[in-house]
Amino acid sequence: MLTCRLAPIILGYVVPAESWRWTQFVTLIIALAVYLLGIGVPETYPREILRARARRLGHNIKLAKAESGVTLAEMAQTTVFTPLAMAITEPVVIIITFYLCLNFAVLFQWFIAVPAVLNLVYKFSLHQAGLAFIAAIIGALASTLTSSLIERFTNRMNGSTNMGTMAPLEYRLVPAIFGSLGMVASLFWIGFTAKPTINHFVPIIGTGVYVWSSMSILTALVSYIFDAYPAKGTLSALTLMATARILCAGALPLVIIQMIMGLQGQWAYSVFGFIATAMIGVPLILFQFGARLRARSRHSAPMMENGKHMMGHQVDREMQMGNLTGSH
Predict the structure, then answer these.
(1) CA angle in degrees (0–180, nearest 5) for 317-319-323
(2) Chain centroid offset of residue 65 CA
(3) pLDDT tens-digit readout, 159-211
(4) Average pLDDT of 128-154?
C-alpha cells in the first residue's frame, strides 16, 4: 500500500517536467525493475517445493487438491458461486465487505480530491500537492506499528506469549475498533478544516490519520477472515471482499469532485463521516458476537482452540517435507 502513496510524490515532479505519459512509463520502469529482482528468487510455494523435491529425488508424490480447485468448475465454485452465496448468507462476510467498501472508496478518492482541493483552496502546484501524500505514508507506517503493538498487548493480556497458543480470534479486531474511531474523526476533521483561514498542514495531517485508521481496519478485518474460515471459505470470502471494495474504489473517484463542488467540502466529507459513524459498530459487533456467528456458518469447519488447527496444518506440511528430504 505504500507504493500507491509514493506515486503522487514521484509523479508530482515527473509529470510537470515531462508529460502525463510518464505516469505509465514510470510504472513500466518499476515493474521491470521488480521483475529483474525476482529472477532467481527461491520458490516459496509449499506445494511446488514438495513437487520439485520429489522430482529431484525421483519419487512420485500425490498431493491433496489445491483449495482453490483444479478444474474450471471447481475454481468457478470457489471464486464465483460461493462468494455470491456468502454475500447473502454470511453475516460476518457481509458486514466486513460493506465496511471495506466504504474504507477503500474513501481511501482512493484522496488521489483525486487531495490535489484538487489543495490547488483550489491553497493554490498548491502539482508537486506540492504530491508532497502532501507524505502524511499518508506516515499514516500507513504508523498503522503497522500500532497494530503490532496492540497484538502483542492482547496476546500478553490473554497469556498467549509463545507460538503454541494464540489469543481468542476476536482479539484480532482490536486495531479495527481503534481505527473505526479514527476514521470518523479524520473525515470530519478534513471536511471542516480544508479552508483558506486554516493552515494547510491541518487537513493534510487529517489525511494521514485517515490512512492510519483505514489500514488498521483493513489489516485487522482481513486477518480475522483468514482465520475465521478454513482455506476454501477464506478464498471465497476474500474474493467477494476484494471485488466489492475495488468496484467501490473505482466508482467514488469518478464523482468526488462533483460532490465537493455541489455540497462543499465539509458536507461532502460529513456524508462519509456519518456513514463511518454507523460503521463503528462493525468491529464491536464482531468482537462480541463473531464466535457465535462463525459457529453457525456452513462454510466454517470446526476449529480447534488457540489456533491449533493452523499449527496442525503447519506440522503436516513439515512432516511431508521431512519425509521427502529424508528419503534418499
Answers:
(1) 120
(2) 27
(3) 655 555 667 889 999 999 999 999 999 999 999 999 999 999 999 999 999 99
(4) 91
Report d(CA 240, CA 116) in Å as an integer.
Answer: 32
Closest CA to 69 of 222, 223, 239, 221: 239
Distance CA 141, CA 155 (A): 22
Provide CB contacts within 8 A for 174, sequence distance 6+. 150, 154, 220, 287
Q: How many helices (H) and strands (E) does the chain have?
A: 14, 0
Burial of 82 (0-12, 13-18, 19+ CB in 10 A): buried
Cα separation of 145 and 166, whole Å?
20
**Closest by Cα among 47, 275, 304 to 168:** 304
Query: What b-and-e string marks burial along 309-326, b requiring 16 or more CB atoms within 10 Å of the CB?
Result: eeeeeeeeeeebeeebee
Dihedral over alpha carbons 195, 198, 204, 208 (to 10 degrees): -110
Distance from C-alpha of 144 to C-alpha of 150, rounded to nearest angstrom:
10
Quote the pLDDT of residue 75.
87
* Angle made by CA atoms 130, 132, 136, in degrees to the nearest 5: 110
Q: How many CA atoms lie within 13 A of 82 on its CB side?
A: 22
Q: How far is CA 160 from the centre of its chain?
A: 25
29 burial via Cβ count (<10 Å: 0-12, 13-18, 19+): exposed
Q: What secondary structure does DSSP assign to 107-134, as a single string?
A: HHHHHHHHHHHHHHHH---HHHHHHTTH
- Distance separating alpha carbons of residues 5 and 287, to the nearest angstrom: 31
Backbone angle region of 63, left / alpha / beta, with phi > 0 → left and psi within -120 to 50 → alpha: beta
Rounded distance between C-alpha atoms, residue 275 and residue 302, angstroms: 35
Does the pLDDT value for residue 59 go beyond 90?
Answer: no
What is the grid cell recorded at 1? Answer: 500500500
